[in-house]
Sequence to fold (451 residues):
Amino acid sequence: MTIVGQEAASADVTAGLPADFCWGVATSAYQIEGAVDADGRTQSIWDTFCRVPGAVFNSENGDVACDHYHRMPADVSMIAGLGVDAYRFSVSWPRVQPGGRGPLNRRGADFYSRLVDELLSAGVQPWITLYHWDLPQELEDSGGWPARDTAYRFAEYASLVHSVLGDRVPTWTTLNEPWCSAMLGYHQGVHAPGRRDFGDAMKAVHHLLLGHGLAAQALRSLGVGELGITLNMGCATPFSSSAADIDAARRADGLGTRIYLDPLVHGRYPADVLEDIGVSLPVAEGDLEIISTPLDVLGVNYYSSLTFRGGDDPASPVVVPQSLPVTAMGWEIVPSGLTDLLVRLHNDYGLPMVITENGAAFDDVAGSDGFVADADRVSYIASHIEAVGKACSLGADVRGYFAWSLMDNFEWAYGYAKRFGIVRVDYETQERVLKQSAHWYRDTIHQHRGL
Ligand code: FCB
Fold:
């Protein structure tokens, strides 16, 4: 077979990476599974949000998505065919615990049990994310993440999932990108549940972190191997050396990164951020000890970095476009920001890290055979893998890289318009076709292993 993309792979983009570096691909439940009514699953906040007029591009939804729920064994063979070490997927809370309370739904849980078995027998390590944004609607109805009780419900759900998969899954991450849940979901209203209240978003931040901590304690006591959380981060650079611009970047970094990592690692919220937000967080006695339960791995999702300047309102840093090439999301392509971020996280927080997401949407053009020659995506991924290698050479402890995403899928408020996959999905036929980037990724992994 022709190895497409071999040339790009032959430049050593993996220089600096450890020999036992873990290579993977990532997805999330609502974005790929479909089968929203199958086997006792109830509604999540995304099922509801997709029905709000104007909320999602083209009124699309995850009802069918990539139909992964019904095509899982073939998808696992495809994953194994890429030669990856690991597959990061998320568990749908309303599938395994409908309504977010009460006992395990055995039929829903069986899907993940079969998925894990398929992966293990194909030689691929399962990497679980417990929460990738699909809160059971009933929990939103009783307050959602701004309500403290949701944190306790999450820990209970984590233990239920562990009772089914704990014997076979080595790595457990609690939340995916709590910044998105809190800020996009409860402040900007562009993600489910679509609320627009800054005070609620700040309550959500604390309760997401508390839910993480309670789940981490529960999972620790159940003996999980490796425990982590995934955050989305980038570098926040001041546009100039003016005091206003430096302050704008400090604020953006505070609300984007430090408000999560300081309590998680150092057991305290950063004083400057508490002052910036101007509302008090609902912190109860003992919460910060729970939140700072030791972690084994920090999942880093990286797509871009931003430059900020101060605006008329100091509380609202202004993004300054840098005239760099952008992806189809309009996100600037800044691989050097990934190196800088990883080195900074290493210095400030000292945790082993794994890139749990990195990748790009481009306006793919498929040939009549469905093949996409996505040199732009190859170049994006290659430059970011190189950036990780540089960070390792500078001392950062980065142990793995998961490409986002295994396949094109439901890109939240953008519906199916934005394609992040290294595998193309034809949504009419559900046919999967490896893009040039998938071939390139497989060759690069192969080469890194010295095979
Ligand atoms: C991240 C999400 C993931 C996907 C990518 C493009 O913020 O975790 O589900 O949407 O962005």
